[in-house]
Specification:
The protein is an alpha/beta fold. The chain contains twelve helices and 21 strands.
Amino acid sequence: MTDKLIWNPKAECMLLKERERLQLDRLQHIVKYAYENIAYYKKSFDAAGVKPSDIKSLKDIVKLPFTSKEDLRSAYPFGMFAVPHEEILEIHTSSGTTGRPVVVGYTAGDLELWGEVMARALSMAGTTKADWVQNAYGYGLFTGGLGVHYGARKIGANIVPISAGNTKRQLEIIKDFGTTILTCTPSYTLYLAEVAGEEGIDLKKCKLRAGVFGAEMWTEKMREEIEKRLHLSALNIYGLTEIIGPGVSQECMEKAGLHLQEDHFFPEVISPDSLVPVEEAHKGELVLTTLTREGTPMIRFRTKDITALNHGICKCGRTTVKMDRITGRSDDMMKIRGVIVFPSQIEKALLEIPGIEPHYKIIITRPHQLDELEVQVETSKKMFSDEIRHIEEMKNNIESHVERAIGIRIKVALVEPKSIQRSEGKARRVFDMRNMK
Ligand code: DLL
């Protein structure tokens, strides 16, 4: 057994000055590379009047224009690729269900890099060759499954590539194989625990030791619950398709912030209003630049995720900057059961149905450890006084229409005309009751 708790001490424990030098070299290279190989960047840099040679220090990064999800969507499918297709080995896409997905391409070098940052992440949870890693993130275009897979493979751990779902089988495997490391979304862990209770499986007697949980927002309270119910150490992992997938940052056993792999991903935190960088330890929107990606390099990608960055040496010995757990988003994107949904998609679908008033409320709850989405909609006066049978029919129609539009199941409640509160300023339409703060 190699008890390698810090996977890459050279990179993870580097002196600050040394890391900054490396980051600057890499930043200068990637900016030039993106400018010369991707038409989008050439156009956007030219429009902003900035040249790659203007990047003389790390601070100069603010001279470069931001890249947004919309920019990436309009480059669909391969407009953000910096290399010919023969050099792309794998693609992944963002998890939106409608509109154009963001397509990212991985070269051999990118897959190697992904395995490296994921090996670092899994090592923070104490994973070694001797571990059974049960990977319950979905395999496929979603990055969770394969990201964990590449990291676990690099470490040489025993991978159980079970993918998402199949809860009873998951539990049998935890019990029979002696799974030690579990990887899945935090909400799924609680569902696993619930089914374990129903099936009479005592998780305390199982060998689970640590879990690497992410892909959605969760809280300290949720960590306590998970640790209590699954009898393991629950650690937070963060990442996004546009940058690489999981592995951008991860908590070590100190559980005091997520170590960001700064030699590969350069972070900034900006005010979403002024777009100016905020001070150290202040909350704002995370902006990421890939320093080493070859297939789809990203320059100043606005993640919309709200966090703060903290420098300083961690008790674990790593010197990489730590980000706070994500507490919200600067746009209105919702992630429901792992699927990205925008309120505007729901609104659009609702308003396509005749007889529906443009007054609605979106309520997200998590009653049985799984997200549920309810849409309360006002109907017209005439319809509301209609027979029950018609109302039921209408409700079903709306449900299936919206489900087709967003790709996940919803519940609709038809409410009386004028019963939804009107607003004098910005309407508050989304009520996220999952208690994420
Ligand atoms: O969720 C990648 C991933 C897979 C991360 C497995 C961790 C584990 P996307 O589907 O592109 O990629 O969604 C990215 O999910 O911008 C955040 O809003 C949210 N997110 C991801 N990790 C966390 C986390 C994957 N630990 C979007 N806490 C991001 C809060 C998270 N939000």
